[in-house]
Design a protein that fits this description.
CATH class of one domain: Mainly Alpha
Oligomer: single chain
Structural class: alpha/beta
Number of strands: 15
CATH architecture of one domain: Orthogonal Bundle
Helix content: 40-55%
Number of helices: 22
CATH topology of one domain: Arc Repressor Mutant, subunit A
Strand order of the largest sheet: 3-2-1-11
Length: 580
C-alpha cells in the first residue's frame, strides 16, 4: 500500500522511522523522556573525512526528528581526543613517529600553532564542517571527560567485573587479551604512552590499578614498552577504557538513547551493549548500522591511508545543502563517494526543491513525501517559504566559469558568467543579484581554478545521482542504439561545419567579444533539420543533447551553448557518448 500523509511518520523518511523506534522503546522501558540524547563519536587521530561527518550529521537528523515528534533532544559530539596515535597518517610530518601511542591531546599540532594539540586540530576540522553545515551539538572532549571524573563510577564497575567481561569478549570475538589484562589502558607516567602499559590488577576498595609498561602489538607491529611498573588511581583520569567497554560507560554517563555505528565496529558495539545491560544495568541505546564510505576505486576512505575526502574539500566546490543531501538520502548500502558527486548532488538538491514547491510534479505520492521530507531535514526543518533562487545546472556554471579561466585577475568572471546565462535565456536581469546563484557561481569558479577533473565530475551519459529514480550508484541515462546513431550523424555534420570554420580569419572564441549568433543559428538548424528529416520531434533531439552535455532534460539555448563550449569539445563528447 502506498504511503499517504495520513499514515506518514513525521516527515516520511528513514530518519523519522528511527526516531519513532526510539520513542516507542523509551515508552516501553518507562524511562524519563524530558530530553532524549543522541551521540556521535568524533575521531581525533587523523584527518576527518566525509564518513566522520556523516556519523554526526545523521545523528543530528535523528535529534531533529525527535524534536519534530514533540520531544526535546540534543546531539552530544564526543571527541576521542584521549585516544593514542596508533599510526602516522600519510602526508603528516615524520616527527610524529616519536609520539606513537601518546594521547593525541598531548601531541603538538603538526599544522603549526593554530590549535593546542594534534587532537584539538583534528576535532576542530570536523567541528568546522559541522558548523558550516548548520549542525547543532554539545561538544565533549574525551580527555576532559576522563580527567573530570565523569566516567569514574562506570570504570569502577567495569574493572570490578573485568574477569566476567574478559570471558565474554573471548567467547564472543575470540580475543583473549582481556582474559589476561584489564580492559583499561593506563597512561604510563614514565613514557606518557597508552596501549604499551598493560593494566594488571584492580583494587576496588582503593579504586587503584597496577600496571607494567611491557609493550604491545599496535597495528600488527610490536611496540616496546619502557618497562616502568606503576600504579594509578581512577580519580586522576590517567588512563582510559578500551573500546570494547568505553561506549557502554559513555552511554550511561551521558544518558544516550541513540548511537549509529559502522559495520567495521559491529563486534565492539555488541560487547558494549552487553556491558551496558549486564554490568552497568543501563539499557543500551537504539542503534542504526551504516555502511562505510568507499572511494571510487572501492577502497575504504581512511584517515591514515591518504584517500580522504574532507568536508572542507567538499564545501570548497559544493554547497552545504549538497553535502547534507549526500548524507540524508539514505543510511543503508555501501556508498562510493568522490568529488565527481558534487555536480550531481548540487543539481539533485535543486530537483528536490522544485518538487517541494510543486514546480516539478512527482506522481508517486510515497516518493514525493520522502523527497520533500529529506529536503526539510537538509534545511533543518526550517525550509524557505518561497522558491527564491533560479536553478542552473552546475555543469553549466562550471563550463561557463571555464571560458574565462585565463583572463586577468581584474576580470569580473561572475558578471561575465551571468551575462552568458542571460544570453542563453536561463536568467533575467533581476537574477543578477540572486545571492544563492552567486554563491554557486563562486563555487564553480573554485572548481575551474583548481582544475578539478571535469570529465569525471560533470555528468553526461555516465551521470550520477541527479534523478530521483537513481538512489544507488548507477547511471541515469542509457543510450539506445538509435540514439547513438543520431549522435554520430549530427557529429558528422558538426565536423563538416568545423572544417569550414578552420579557414584563416574565422573564430568561434566565445570570450573575444563576438556573439557568433549566425554560427549558433547554423548549429541549431543542423540539429533541428536532422530531427525533422528523420521523423523525430526536435524537442526529443534537444533533450538528448541536454542529457549528454549537462545531464538534464532541459537547458540553455542549444546553438549558443554549443558554440560557447567550442564545436571541437562538443564533437568529442558526442563521439565518446555514441561509442560507449
Amino acid at each position: 500500500m502506498s504511503q499517504t500523509a495520513e499514515n506518514t511518520i513525521g516527515k516520511g523518511t528513514w530518519i523519522d522511522k528511527i526516531a519513532k523506534t526510539i520513542i516507542d522503546r523509551e515508552i516501553e522501558l518507562q524511562r524519563p523522556t524530558v530530553i532524549i540524547n543522541v551521540e556521535s563519536g568524533l575521531g581525533a587521530s587523523g584527518i576527518p573525512h566525509i564518513g566522520s561527518l556523516g556519523d554526526a550529521v545523521r545523528a543530528y537528523g535523528i535529534s531533529m526528528a525527535l524534536q519534530n515528534l514533540g520531544y526535546n533532544s540534543r546531539l552530544i559530539a564526543f571527541s576521542d581526543d584521549f585516544d593514542g596515535l596508533r599510526k602516522v597518517p600519510i602526508g603528516l610530518p615524520d616527527w610524529l613517529h616519536d609520539h606513537i601511542c601518546k594521547p593525541v591531546s598531548s601531541i603538538p599540532d603538526p599544522f603549526g600553532d593554530c590549535h593546542n594539540s594534534y587532537g584539538d586540530h583534528m576535532s576542530g576540522l570536523l567541528l568546522e564542517g559541522l558548523n558550516a553545515s548548520g549542525i547543532k551539538y554539545e561538544f565533549r572532549s574525551g580527555t576532559q571527560t576522563y580527567k573530570s571524573g565523569i566516567l569514574t563510577d562506570q570504570t569502577h564497575k567495569i574493572l570490578t567485573n573485568s574477569q566476567k567481561i574478559g570471558n565474554k569478549i573471548s567467547e564472543s570475538t575470540g580475543q583473549q587479551k582481556y582474559t589476561k589484562y584489564l580492559p583499561y589502558f593506563p597512561l604510563c607516567e614514565n613514557c606518557n604512552r597508552l596501549y604499551v602499559a598493560n593494566a594488571l590488577e584492580y583494587y576496588p576498595s582503593e579504586q587503584k590499578i597496577s600496571y607494567k609498561c611491557s609493550g604491545n602489538i599496535i597495528g600488527k607491529k610490536q611496540i616496546e614498552g619502557c618497562g616502568h611498573i606503576g600504579e594509578l588511581r581512577l580519580s586522576k583520569g590517567s588512563g582510559k577504557l578500551a573500546w570494547k567497554v568505553e561506549f557502554a560507560a559513555r552511554w550511561q554517563a551521558f544518558d544516550i538513547r541513540f548511537e549509529a555505528f559502522g559495520k567495521d565496529i559491529m563486534d565492539s558495539v555488541r560487547i558494549n551493549d552487553w556491558v551496558s545491560e549486564e554490568i552497568l544495568k543501563y539499557n543500551h541505546p537504539v542503534h542504526a548500522k551504516y555502511e562505510m564510505f568507499l572511494d571510487k576505486g572501492g577502497k575504504k576512505i581512511s584517515k591514515s591511508s591518504g584517500n580522504v575526502l574532507t568536508p572542507q574539500m567538499w564545501l570548497k566546490y559544493g554547497t552545504p545543502e549538497s553535502l547534507l543531501l549526500l548524507l540524508y538520502k539514505r543510511i543503508s548500502g555501501t556508498r562510493h563517494v568522490g568529488m565527481d558527486d558534487i555536480p550531481h548532488l548540487m543539481d539533485e538538491y535543486d530537483l528536490y526543491e522544485d518538487i517541494y514547491f510543486g514546480k516539478v510534479k512527482e506522481q508517486n505520492e510515497s516518493k514525493r513525501i520522502k523527497l520533500t521530507g529529506i529536503y526539510e531535514y537538509i534545511n533543518h526543518l526550517k525550509p524557505p517559504q518561497i522558491l527564491c533562487s533560479v536553478h542552473i545546472p552546475y555543469r553549466i556554471l562550471i563550463e561557463q566559469a571555464g571560458l574565462f579561466k585565463n583572463q586577468n585577475i581584474d576580470s569580473n568572471v561572475m558578471l561575465q558568467v551571468l551575462e552568458r546565462l542571460k544570453k542563453y535565456g536561463m536568467i533575467r536581469d533581476s537574477d543578477f543579484k540572486d545571492p544563492i546563484l552567486q554563491r554557486k557561481i563562486n563555487l564553480a569558479i573554485n572548481w575551474v581554478n583548481d582544475d578539478v577533473d571535469m570529465d569525471n565530475a560533470a555528468g553526461g551519459v555516465k551521470g550520477g545521482e541527479v534523478g530521483v529514480e537513481n538512489d544507488k550508484d548507477s547511471n541515469r541515462w542509457e543510450l539506445t542504439a538509435e540514439q547513438k546513431s543520431i549522435l554520430k550523424s549530427i557529429s558528422t555534420d558538426l565536423k563538416n561545419l568545423e572544417s569550414r570554420l578552420s579557414k584563416p580569419g574565422l573564430s568561434t572564441d566565445a570570450t573575444k567579444g563576438s556573439d557568433n549568433e549566425a554560427l549558433a543559428q547554423e548549429v541549431q538548424s543542423i540539429i533541428f533539420n536532422y530531427a525533422k528529416s528523420n521523423g523525430f520531434k526536435p524537442k526529443e533531439i534537444f533533450k538528448l543533447f541536454y542529457r549528454i552535455l549537462i545531464n538534464a532534460d532541459k537547458g540553455p539555448r542549444l546553438g549558443n551553448y554549443i558554440v560557447d563550449l567550442g564545436l571541437g569539445n562538443v564533437i568529442k563528447t558526442l563521439d565518446k557518448s555514441s561509442d560507449y
